[in-house]
């Protein structure tokens, strides 16, 4: 007959040297849009021959999805670095396709993009392409009105960061995952 003295010993559930595990803190629920007051994460303003701003915004379309909104304006007459926002052209990227194409452009995976037929009267367009000096030409038209900028690499980086954040939030993933997925997929074309 075997002795049961070893079977009755109490063993701790964890070795004595193991750290005590604290319960994981409850994470805040993901919100698709940053609060309006937090402009540093949702808006970029640049003054590059014209005044231009990029914002993350919920689309005005029937889907109401997060996207990138661009507004460009000429400078006020006689005032450098002051946009004449009353004469601005507003442009919203489509959340499902153009936002990803724009990210691929900013990442250097596409030579250019040409988004057409926007606005109620379908007269708005955005065209962007790389210049040989590493800058990015970006122009927006509305009918006969046109404004454009030549974006240096530092501005491109800021806009790329905002665009990737929009894609990540739109799909409920972190920015690292969004960037990795954008790198892995073939360049998005129309």
The CATH superfamily name is Transcriptional Coactivator Pc4, Chain A
DSSP summary, beta strand count: 8
Name the strands of the widest sheet in spatial order. Answer: 1-2-3-4
Given helix and strand content, the structural type is alpha+beta
Assign a percent range to the helix content: 10-25%
| Sheet of most strands | 4 strands, antiparallel
In the CATH scheme, the class would be Mainly Beta
Order of SSEs: HEEEEHEEEEHH
Under CATH, the topology is which?
A: Transcriptional Co-activator pc4, Chain A
Average of per-residue pLDDT values? 82
Q: Enumerate how many helices there are, as a single number.
A: 4
**Uncertain spans:** 2-40
Shape: globular
Task: State the separation between the terminal residues, measured CA to CA.
Answer: 80 Å
| CATH architectural group | Roll
Strand content: 25-35%
Number of domains: 1
Computed Rg: 25 Å
